[in-house]
Design brief:
Blueprint lengths: L1 H48 L1 H13 L11 E5 L2 E6 L6 E2 L20 E3 L1 H18 L2 E6 L4 H10 L20 E7 L27 H16 L2 E4 L2 E7 L15
Parallel strand pairs: 3-5
Antiparallel strand pairs: 1-2, 2-4, 5-6, 6-8, 7-8
The protein binds zinc ion.
């Protein structure tokens, strides 16, 4: 009986030992992550504090829009319910707004500052024409004049009161309706294409009918035919002047702000 009891105690002892051993084994993986947790946290702490500013620097240029090569949606301004759309180099066009400088036929600065506004339909179609030019020939527009507020038309008239050169303010130019644009073509290096005369050259050489070399005729034809496809019509005596024909607007007094 005693021997049986001893065996039982012995067996129970063994069982307790085995259970304790099992507990010890399962403790090992429990304690191991505690130390590796610290390691992981340490590793995590580095990426959070260190690479973040660099990541930001790396990502920022990628988030920026491509510089001046592709067009952005143009900004639209309005006053008293009348809308104008501003075009700028951000839309892929070059601006050389001559009446905001002395570099024009009057040799006087007419505009307080140079900004290019057109009626939305005209602006939208001009940008479509620009897109086609880019795709077909690698050319872009260089714009000399856009919307010309009535007050600025009056300034022009006061300096050159001659209907052969300037539209009388009372009659009103298509520029003062926000539908006309003066422009030429530039190549991929920004160089103006040869149009036979400079902008605002008042003489027969600026007429479409003038017998220029073939290269000049080709350049004028590219400009005129592209503009016509997008609703703009030229005039006989000025190769640079185009009016949008598919919309009508009254003369406008609004003058853009100068910053
Ligand atoms: Zn014009």
């Amino acid at each position: 009986m005693m021997i049986r009891m001893q065996k039982l105690y012995y067996f129970l002892g063994l069982l307790v030992c085995l259970l304790l051993l099992q507990q010890c084994k399962s403790d090992t993986p429990m304690s191991a992550p505690k130390s590796s947790d610290k390691v992981e946290k340490k590793h995590q702490a580095e990426p959070i504090t260190k690479p973040n500013p660099e990541d930001h620097k790396k990502e920022t240029p990628q988030e920026e829009p491509p510089t001046h090569t592709e067009s952005e949606p143009p900004k639209t301004s309005s006053h008293a319910g009348v809308h104008f759309t501003e075009l700028s180099t951000k839309n892929g066009v070059e601006l050389d707004l001559r009446y905001a400088t002395n570099n024009n036929f009057t040799h006087k600065k007419i505009y307080d500052c140079g900004r290019c506004y057109l009626r939305p339909e005209a602006a939208e179609n001009l940008l479509k024409a620009q897109q086609e030019l880019k795709e077909k020939f690698g050319y872009s527009f260089k714009i000399f004049d856009c919307f010309r507020p009535k007050a600025y038309q009056q300034r022009l008239w006061d300096i050159v009161p001659d209907a052969d050169y300037v539209t009388p303010p009372a009659k009103g130019s298509m520029h003062s309706r926000g539908l006309a644009v003066d422009l030429t073509l530039i190549d991929e290096h920004g160089k103006e294409l040869d149009m036979g005369t400079p902008f605002d050259y008042f003489g027969e050489e600026a007429h479409y009918s003038y017998d220029h070399p073939e290269a000049v005729k080709r350049n004028r034809w590219i400009l005129k035919s592209t503009m016509e496809r997008y609703g703009f019509g030229g005039i006989r005596t000025e190769w640079w002047h185009f009016s949008y024909r598919k919309a009508t607007y009254p003369l406008d007094e609004w003058v853009w702000e100068c910053h």
